[in-house]
Fold this protein.
Amino acid sequence: MKMQNPTMADYATLAKTIASLTEGETDMVALMATVACELHHSDDRFDWTGFYRVTEPGLLKIGPYQGGHGCLVIPFERGVCGAAARTGEVQLVPDVDAFPGHIACASSTRSEIVLPVRNASGEIIAVLDIDSDQPDAFTEEDSVALDAILTATFAR
Ligand code: SME
């Protein structure tokens, strides 16, 4: 993490880049890998960026990601990712220590945002998890912009 001149995502440019890189692609892993990569390198707040996929009812398994290793399996009942998958609502967590059941894969994580990922039928197929070593790193603006990218990529 750079402390000087921090880079923050330019979401308008990112959305265009991801749209052009993934045009015509329908393979979910190819799409997730590309989105994880593009997001991760666009913003110094993003220390872990990746997907957990719904592989059977009530269960998330690790998908494409960037950063240190992530837990392989997360049941819907557990953690921030589980809460997003279970409720279908974005989880914006300013302080992970205050979130009951938070799964600490990296002790450096201070805050995170997790968004449900829906396909064209509206089914939740995954969650996007972004973890930051900075406290209170994410805003409603991130939520709106990330959700728009996910919809454009996975629900088309
Ligand atoms: N912060 C997540 C899990 C972290 S990872 O495995 C990268 C959670 O509590 O759902």
